[in-house]
Structures are given as C-alpha cells and as structure tokens.
Amino acid sequence: MTDFPSLARQMWHQLEPVYAPVYFSPEVARETEALGYDTSERWPTYFALRAAPLGPATPELVTATFYSFSPGMVAAHVPAAWRTASPATVLEARARGVDATLRAMLGELTGDPRLARAADLARTAAEAAALAGRPLAAANAALPWPDEPHMVLWQAANVLREHRGDGHVAALLAAGLDGCEALVSFAAIDAAPVENFASRGWSAQDWEAARARLAERGLVDTAGRATGPGRELRDEVERMTDELAAAPYRALGEDGCALLAELNRPVFQAVLESGLLPSQSTLGILTVKDPGPRGQVTGPRG
Q: What's this model's pTM, rounded to 2 decimal places?
C-alpha cells in the first residue's frame, strides 16, 4: 500500500525549488522595482508577491496566514505594499517576472513535450487539493491558469506548496504552537540554525519568552534544545502536515507521482544550477542537491 503522506513530502521537495525562485529572481526584482518597491532587501517584495492573491490584505490577515512572522514585521510592510501597487498589478508583475526567470533558466526546455506533460500532472494534483480552511492555497487556486506549460508547472507548484503550508499551520495550531514557538521548537531540533529566523521579526525578548513557554511544557531544556517530548511533538506536527498534504498526490497515484518527479527533474536541476536559491532555507529544505525520500522537515512557512 502506498504511503501517500511520505510521498507528499517527497513531491514537496521536488516542486518547492520550482516555485521558490520568485523571491530571489533578478527578473522578478526588475518587475517589482519598476512598480516602485524597494528591492535592496527581500521583504518589501516578499510580502507583496506572496500576499497579493489575497487581495488588499490587512496586516492581521497576513500575520494569520503567514503565521511565523511577527505582527510588527508584517505591519511594517502591509498595507504599505498596497500603497505602492495594487494586488492585481503585483500579480501581473509576478507572472511576467516568473515567466522571464523560467525562460532564462530552462531555455529550449520550455518547448519540450515532457515539460508540458509534467505541467499537466502537476495541475491535476493542484486541482485535486481540497481548499476548505486553506486560505493561501484557495487564493492562488482562484487565479486563472496560464497557457504556457512552464507557467502552469509554476502555478501548480505554488498552489501545492501553499496547500501544504496551510495544513502545516493547522498542525501547529493542533500542537499548541504559536508563530514564535513554532520557530523556537524548530530550531530546538537543529532543523535550521537560529540565525536563519532572525529575519522573521521576533525580538530577543519574544524568542526568550517563547522558549520559556516551551520549557514550562517540558518541550525544551534550559539550553533551549528539544527534550524527548519536544521532539515527539515536532514529529507529530510533521506527520500531520504530511497527512494533510497527501490528497493531491492520491489523485495522481503512485505511478503519476513517479512520472511527475521524473519529468520535473530537468527543471529541478536547472533551478538548482542557477545558483539563485540559498543552500538552506527556513523551511529546512536543503536546496543544493536532489532531495532524498525523507529526512527534512517542513518548518515555518515562507
């Protein structure tokens, strides 16, 4: 019997690098800079690009859906993002930038029938994603599908990763972990260095307070490292995240997932070889090599 939760994790590792260049691409940066955004740092455009499908979202909505960013950091960028450009304008710029990025990376591969088949499979999975209780997935799924296969593949990867992310938030809520506690507990199992999370906007006082709350629950020790129960709770979060992400891949079936992974591999490799992506993100994904079947963890959204 196929273990679809584990397969969902494997497919996430395959498809996340297809989506992620949107936040690091010079082509996307040129598009957003032309709209008036500050591109000297990542976050002004990050919040605009990722939140745009929600419409002119309030800081409260973005904080709730992004989950692991401090409310103060979100408020520094939203709703200011919508005073620079409307969400609809941002989405148009996002599409132009992603299109240019993928064309530059893939070259003649954009016309390869195998990429078109990969796009069809990824879209099938994305359209099978249940959207109830999944605001970011639903907002992206409501966008029109593009015509070009490479853009269909990117859009499907977008919907699927936000679907997984929405489910991850549900798992964190079920575990009783707020946004800052999610980061502290993630760092406590050595999934990613603490320094990786400084950009999420939590102060040292916020971090220590979250660590103290986890210590009261017996989830971290005095040094801030995960205890046995703390690791068990994170394992449960990951298990639930995988289970909640599995339905789209059940729709493809094991053979369909294997074919999608095979057909996506040239895209995956082209993205990694571009050097755009960091070697390790706050998601806990190592992006410097082809991922193995398991072993990484979902981590904070973003």
A: 0.93
